[in-house]
Amino acid sequence: MTATTAAAEVDAEVRGILERVAADSFPPLHAVHHLLSVGVCVPCTFRMFGAFSHVCSCTSLTASVLHSFLEDHDDSAKGGPCSCLSTDEACCSVCFGVLLPTCHQDDGVVSFNGISPIDRITSMVFQAVQRESYQLDEFFLEISLPAVVAANERAIRLHMKEKYGNENWFKDKIFSQQTMSVKEALRLLLVPSLEKKLDVKHGNNSFRIRLTYTHDDASRKLKSLLPNDRNRKRKTESREGTDTRRNSTYEDNQILSETDSFIHKTLECIQDQEFCSLFQLPPEKVFKPCHLVISCLRSPIYIGGRYLKLSRNVSQSCWIIDDERMGEASVEEIIGEDVRTICRGDGCKFHAAGREDIDVRMLGSGRPFLIEVLNARSIPSAIEVEQIAEKINSSEKKYVRVRNLKLVDREIWSMMREGEAEKQYAALIWTSRSLTDVDLQKISGVNDMAAGNKPVKIRYELSLDFLLSSVPGLMFFLSTSMHLFRQEIVQNTPIRVLHRRSPLERKRIIHWMEIEKVEGSSNYYLLHLCTQAGTYIKEFVHGDLGRTHPSIGAILGCRAEILQLDVTDVKMDLLQ
């Protein structure tokens, strides 16, 4: 087949499409011609007339082809030069070249020589995905357009209403504001091409490909035309949480989105009459295309489990005061960095069901936690998650261990935020005098523990650092027990945290207690207790200068101090 024959067949196909569209409730051809003459591109012309779906797949339908068709069917389009066939480099005055993709990137105007515009944009997206080596199973296409696109489209609609509003065809549903938007039209053009190129389906929004179009000159002019009382600067509200990202593209997109949303709302509040007085009808022609930024973002993924903290010099989260690290390391860093590295994320956030002080160990079944990985390039397999756990658990420093590490759904985060119901502890305490059976009887009560609240006993051996260096070589054994069932206490915010916590009065429940005496010493005891979550255990022992009542010291009528503390169980049916 010769090039001439192929061209003729394409021309015949295009004209066949136009004939069908013209016969199917298409508006008068002189109105179509007028839209082209004021700088509206062919896709926007058909889109605004509600016929975009008929021609979206026809890449050969250009302004010259459409004008030729109009000349054959409309006398007003015949004779002399026509502004719709101007050879200047004007973009569409509505979509700014988005639907006939001409775009500006940091390296200049993108050239589409030898390749269709849609294929070129598809190729650019594919390169962005490949550059970061994202692992894909589905994607969702997000498109952000400058607010001036909506403003210019409204200006065109009002101009056409002004010019043709009295004609019968205009009064029908044709040229309705309910027709396909520029975003929807661009998505219709790009999605099939992207699905083929990326070899995955469009639909799931956990991985988003975002096309951000901006036009600084037109946007500045638009904002200057808005009424002064509406054109006010917006304050960017601070967001909770901190995280480390490789670049600021995500934040920049958020700011752009918020600004455009504000302008859209402002435009919606302006009545047509006021709009016509503020803006030029029809809008002036556009000679500079939009600037395009392509970005990819995966929604956070979550890896959860339970951690055990075996050191009394490791904080839960990174703790730095005046540029000085507190402790040797943190649970957050030890677990989080290994997870982030495997997932190749921009950063990560550590979430746990409660917390313990830096000098308190977390033993027993461990504390539930989640690592929220931001913009992960890779979703780890079950084997890779096991490798992360093995690496953490085989560390020479033995600060932290993890259990039941696995990839979990976002719903786990909501469940964990509800917090733990109760916790069990083991505390080494000292009293200023030896306790008698009468002393123990003072705080002993009914032992009516529910089956699910039986104490979790941790066996403390002779050589554990749990023991004070002043009493070496001592063994613990159960010499006397005391039980306390559902004792309510009142705790004011402890003095030690008053600088960072609100001064509140809190009521807490002590569910039960057991005590073991340290052999060879009359003043040292190992206290096991189960309490409501949020109980300050240290203050419950020594009383915090009367701010916790009752306390162990107050009940015994002597001084009581807590020397070391372990969490032995966190009661949550989560990540077991």
Topology:
Blueprint: H1 3-23, H2 29-37, H3 42-48, H4 52-55, H5 63-73, E1 103-105, E2 108-109, H6 117-131, E3 138-144, H7 147-164, H8 168-171, H9 182-198, E4 201-202, E5 207-214, H10 216-225, H11 249-268, H12 272-278, E6 290-298, E7 301-309, E8 314-315, E9 320-321, E10 324-325, E11 329-330, H13 331-343, E12 347-352, E13 360-374, H14 382-393, E14 400-408, H15 411-417, E15 422-431, H16 437-442, E16 487-492, E17 505-517, E18 524-532, H17 537-542, E19 548-549, H18 552-556, E20 560-571
Parallel strand pairs: 1-6, 3-4, 3-5, 8-11, 13-20
Antiparallel strand pairs: 1-2, 5-6, 7-13, 7-14, 9-10, 12-13, 15-18, 15-20, 16-17, 16-19, 17-18
Helix pairs in contact: 2-5, 6-9, 13-14
GO molecular function, one term: tRNA pseudouridine(55) synthase activity
Region (Disordered): 226-251
Domain Pus10 N-terminal eukaryotes: 92-291
